[in-house]
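Section 5: illustrative case.
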């Protein structure tokens, strides 16, 4: 393959690798994601794979950025279809966030547990985490009532993340999960 042909194939090949890593992680966990397994699944030469992603951390970071883009899109869709005007956006965003986190636990872990270099809403950082943070901020801004919307978004994100991780870890009472979610959606961020 000529250098020009390789350059043309690079974005598609990279996307294939990231999607394959995501699927393998969700099916079998991150321990199953190896360069050899990805080369077998994608038909991409293992040397080319190592050139694109020299280690698992680089691959996991790419999966995390894609996950943040998917999360931002889900949150934006939730805000767009929310009922109850601007004040109804936060409950819709809460459900979209929790649905995403519980449906894609390995991607979620890549986003928020395994890639400390991806900042959440701070510059500089990749656009996808910043976009997800902006969606949370937009949903909480109507509830700010004089409070700093950026800080409110950080508290909202921390609350959602903590709920997800403690629930997944079996550390919260499962019989009151709906009550917790209702409190997050309607009670905690009510105007002071």
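Designed sequence:
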């Amino acid at each position: 393959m000529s250098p020009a042909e390789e350059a043309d194939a690079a974005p598609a090949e990279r996307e294939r690798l990231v999607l394959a890593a995501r699927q393998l992680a969700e099916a079998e966990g991150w321990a199953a994601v190896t360069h050899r397994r990805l080369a077998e699944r994608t038909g991409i030469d293992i040397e080319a794979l190592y050139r694109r992603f020299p280690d698992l951390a680089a691959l996991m970071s790419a999966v995390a950025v894609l996950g943040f883009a998917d999360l931002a899109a889900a949150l934006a869709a939730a805000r767009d279809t929310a009922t109850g005007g601007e004040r109804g956006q936060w409950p819709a965003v809460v459900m979209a966030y929790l649905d995403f986190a519980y449906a894609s636990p390995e991607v979620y872990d890549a986003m928020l547990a395994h890639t400390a270099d991806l900042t959440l809403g701070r510059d500089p950082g990749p656009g996808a985490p910043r976009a997800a943070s902006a969606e949370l901020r937009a949903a909480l801004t109507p509830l700010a009532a004089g409070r700093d919307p950026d800080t409110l978004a950080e508290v909202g994100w921390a609350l959602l993340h903590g709920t997800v991780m403690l629930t997944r870890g079996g550390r919260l009472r499962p019989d009151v999960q709906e009550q917790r979610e209702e409190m997050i959606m309607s009670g905690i961020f009510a105007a002071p």
